[in-house]
Every structure is written in structure tokens, then in C-alpha cells.
Amino acid sequence: MIAGVVLAAGAGRRMGQPKGLLSGPHGPLVRGAVSALLDGGCSPVGAVIGAAADQVSTLLPEEVHELHNPAWRQGMSTSVRQALEWSERVGADGVVILPVDTPGLGAAVVRRVREHGSGGAGVRVVQATFEGRPRNPVLIGASYFEEVSAATVGDSGARVWLEANRDLVEGVECSDIGDPNDLDTPDQLERWRRNASQAY
Q: Which pLDDT belongs to residue 200?
């Protein structure tokens, strides 16, 4: 069982509002992100929410678990730890973690990462790559939950652990099916809205 978690707890300071509330051509970004995980074969699926939690919550499908993060102001690491702890509680063999502000990463990318890391003996650690560069999403096998959680700090998410353990991380190329760029500013959002042709 491979779970999926959307990280949607931040305030989106540079954007001017929480990114989960932003709308694209296909609706709110948080709804698109959870759909990418669901349609990509992840189950169960959760969303870590914090800033504007009440508003973001109304946009989530009923089948998505709300993971409230009261410590969201301390950075993305708190959301990653919550995602890993919840995945362990539900007995997942691994979890695909997807930031809410990467609308170019749809179900096809999630499915490729999930399938690449869940074949054979046990679930491994897999990171999508784009033209060879490691990006999102990331699949973390259950045997690494505790180790990754202990290494996450500040706003870096799981990046510190991933960079320190490159020998354990398998890359899977996804540049043919997705766009890894995140949305941080209103200008980037408008540019994406004009050019969006796939994913959420």
C-alpha cells in the first residue's frame, strides 16, 4: 500500500495567499494535487494543512484525510514529518510526497514514481528527475520513515536527507510527462495559467 500526501500547509507569503487556495485552469491547486495522487494509484491520500486550514479543508474531496499541522510556521520540515508519521500510522509501505505548488506534476508522474519504487522486495526511495535533475515528487519507503523524519529541518523538507543519501535514492526520469517548476510568485502563477496544457 503506497500512500500519498500533499504538502499544503504554508502561507504562501511571496504569493500573497496559501497556494492551496489558488485556482488554475482545472480548479484549485490543492484539489488538483490530491487528484494527481489518487489517479496516480496512491491510497490512502492525505493533505497536510495549516495556514487558512478551514478554507483549504473545504476544497478537499471527502476521501482525503486532513492532516492538521499546528507548527506549519516552523517550515516545511514539520509537514514532511507529519506526512511520514501519518503514513506509518495507517500502515503504508511507502508514501509519495507532493508539494501543492507544482501543478505540472500530474497523475502520470506520480504513477511512474510509485511503480518504479514499489516493485521487487520492499518499497525503496525514488525521486523524479527532470533532465537528470532530482525534483518532486518523492517516494519514501516505510523502512526510511524514521531516518528521513529525524533529518528534516526548517524549510528544506526532505532535501537534506535526500542529498546526503544519494546512493540510496533511485531517480526516474519524468521530463517527458511533467513539469517540475513550482509557483512562488503571482507572475509565475499568471505565466502558468496562460501556458498550462497538462496536469492540474
A: 64
Q: How many whole angstroms separate alpha carbon 31 and alpha carbon 93?
A: 24
131: left (phi over 0), alpha (psi -120 to 50) or beta: left
Q: Enter the pTM of the model.
A: 0.93
Is residue 91 within 8 Å of residue 123, measured between CB atoms?
no
How far apart, in whole angstroms, are the C-alpha atoms of residue 23 and residue 189?
A: 9
Helix (H, G, I), strand (E, B) or coil at 171: strand
Contact 151, 169 (CB under 8 A): no
Q: Give the whole-angstrom CA distance, residue 166 versus residue 162.
A: 6
With bands split at pLDDT 50, 70 and 90, how would you rate the model's confidence at 79? very high
Spatial distance between the Cα atoms of 172 and 124, rounded to a whole number of angstroms: 12
DSSP structure string for 116-166: HHSSSSS--EEEEEETTEEEEEEEEEGGGHHHHHHH--TT-TTHHHHHHTT
